[in-house]
Specification:
Shape: elongated
Helix content: 55-70%
Distance between the termini: 25 Å
Order of helices and strands: HHEHHEEEHEHEEEEEHEHEHHHHH
Structural class: alpha+beta
Number of domains: 2
Number of strands: 12
Strand content: 15-25%
C-alpha cells in the first residue's frame, strides 16, 4: 500500500469511531488550552505592566530618595542613609553648565487627602504638588482648561488641575473650570482637567488633583524629600542623561569615587528587571504546571491507541495477509494519533484565544496570543501525538498475521 492509501485508512478509522475520537481529543484540547491560556495571561500581564506601570516614557526617568528595595529592612536602611532629594537638586540638574543630554526636570510631592465640592466629598484622593513643567515630561495631558503655570508656582496660587474621575464625580453635568473646590480643607480654583489615564491592576489612576508645588509645600511643609522626573533629549540619550544627573547629585553630596549613591534612580528598564526578578520564576513555574495537563492528554492518546490496537487485531491480521507491510501499519496508527493531537491542539488554541478575547473585551487587561507560542503549541501537539502513538503503532506493526487472524 502507498502512503496516501495508508493515510486514508487511518483517517477513516478516526471518523468511524467519532465518540472515542472526541474523548481522545478532550485530553489534548484541555492540555493545550490550559498551556495557551497561562501563556496568554503571562504575556498579557507583561504587556500590561510595561504599558501601565513601567512606562515612564521613552526618554524619562525618576530620581527619588529611595530606589528599588526588596524588603522592609532595605527600605528603612536606605531611608535612613540617603539624603532627601530637594528642589535645589532639581535646580542644579537644570542649571548644570555641562548639561548636554538632560532636556528638562520637574518636581513632584504627593500625599493622600480628600476633596469637597458643595455637599459632595471624595476620599482617597492623591494630592500632588508639581512644578509647572511636569506636563511636558509626565504622561498627563490637558483635556480642558490649562495646566499649572510658572506664575502660579511663583505666586503660590491656590489653583488646581484635576483628574478625569474627579470631574465625573464632582462635576457630572457642569463645566468645572473656575469652580471652587476644597483641597485638604482649603479653597482652590479649578483651572484644568486631565485626559483619562484609566486603571492599573483595577485601581483608578484619575483620582488625583495637582497643585503648584510651592503651594503644596506652604500647606504641608517643605522638609520632605521630593521626586524629580527627568527627561533626556531623546530615547537614545537616556543612559547619558542618567550619568549626567548622577555626577551632579554625587558632587552636591560630596560622595567619594568608591561610595555608593545615596539616592535612587528609577527607569523603565529597572522596573521591568524588578518584575522579571520578582515574578519571572513564578511565571515559568506556572507554564510548567500547566504543561502537566498536556502530558496527561498525551497519556490519554496513548491509552486509547493501545485499546484501538487490541480491538482491531483481526483487522491488522487481514491487512497484513493481503500484503500490508509493517511500515504501512506503523504509518496508519501514527497518522491517527498525530491527527487527533493536531486537531485537539487546534481546538485548544481556538478556545484559549476566544476566552482571551472575551476577557479583554470586558476588562482593560489585554490577553494576546504570540505567534511564536501558536506555532510552538502546534508543533508540541504534533510531537505529543507522535510520541504517544509510537508504542501503539509499533505494537500493531509487530503483530503476527496468523495470530492476529485467530483473534476474536
Amino acid at each position: 500500500m502507498n502512503v496516501a492509501e495508508t493515510t486514508r485508512v487511518g483517517l477513516d478509522a478516526i471518523w468511524a469511531h467519532k465518540l472515542r475520537s472526541f474523548l481522545t481529543l478532550l485530553g489534548i484540547i484541555i492540555g493545550v488550552a490550559t498551556v495557551i491560556a497561562v501563556v496568554m495571561m503571562v504575556e498579557g500581564f507583561n504587556t500590561y505592566f510595561n504599558e501601565k506601570v513601567a512606562d515612564l516614557g521613552s526618554n524619562a526617568f525618576v530620581i527619588r530618595k529611595v530606589g528599588f528595595v526588596t524588603s522592609m529592612e532595605e527600605m528603612f536602611e536606605q531611608n535612613r542613609k540617603n539624603k532627601n532629594v530637594t528642589l535645589d537638586d532639581m535646580e542644579a540638574i537644570i542649571n548644570n553648565p555641562r548639561r548636554q543630554f538632560v532636556l528638562e526636570a520637574a518636581a513632584r510631592l504627593s500625599s493622600g487627602g480628600e476633596l469637597k465640592y458643595g455637599s459632595q466629598t471624595l476620599t482617597d484622593i492623591t494630592i500632588e504638588g508639581v512644578s509647572h513643567n511636569m506636563v511636558d515630561i509626565d504622561q498627563v495631558k490637558v483635556a480642558e482648561g490649562r495646566y499649572i503655570s510658572q506664575e502660579d508656582e511663583q505666586r503660590r496660587r491656590y489653583v488646581c488641575f484635576i483628574g478625569s474621575n474627579v470631574e465625573r464625580e464632582l462635576f457630572p453635568s457642569i463645566d468645572p473650570i473656575d469652580r471652587e473646590l476644597k483641597v485638604a480643607g482649603l479653597p482652590f480654583r479649578v483651572i484644568g482637567v486631565a485626559e483619562e489615564l484609566g486603571t492599573v491592576m483595577g485601581q483608578p489612576q484619575d483620582n488625583y488633583v495637582n497643585i503648584p508645588i510651592s503651594t503644596y509645600m506652604k500647606i504641608f511643609g517643605s522638609r520632605r524629600s521630593i521626586s524629580i522626573r527627568v527627561a533626556a533629549i531623546n530615547g537614545d540619550a537616556i543612559s547619558h542623561a542618567i550619568d549626567e544627573v548622577r555626577v551632579v547629585l554625587r558632587n552636591r553630596r560630596h560622595l567619594k569615587y568608591a561610595a555608593e549613591d545615596n539616592f535612587g534612580i528609577i527607569t523603565s528598564d529597572s522596573l521591568k528587571e524588578f518584575r522579571d526578578s520578582a515574578l519571572g520564576t513564578i511565571q515559568l513555574v506556572s507554564v510548567g504546571v500547566a504543561s502537566i495537563a498536556l502530558i496527561v492528554g498525551g497519556i490519554v492518546v496513548m491509552n486509547i491507541m493501545l485499546v484501538s490496537v487490541t480491538e482491531r487485531t483481526r483487522e491488522i491480521g487481514i491487512r497484513k495477509s493481503m500484503g500490508a507491510r509493517r511500515a504501512d501499519i506503523l504509518w496508519q496508527f501514527l497518522v491517527e494519533s498525530v491527527t487527533l493531537a493536531l486537531l485537539g491542539g487546534a481546538i485548544g488554541i481556538g478556545l484559549a484565544y476566544s476566552g482571551g478575547k472575551i476577557v479583554s473585551y470586558f476588562t482593560d487587561f489585554l490577553l494576546v496570543l504570540p505567534l511564536g507560542w501558536t506555532i510552538a503549541a502546534t508543533v508540541v501537539s504534533a510531537a505529543v501525538g507522535l510520541f504517544s502513538g509510537v508504542y501503539p503503532a509499533y505494537k500493531a506493526a509487530g503483530l503476527d498475521p496468523v495470530e492476529a487472524l485467530r483473534s476474536e
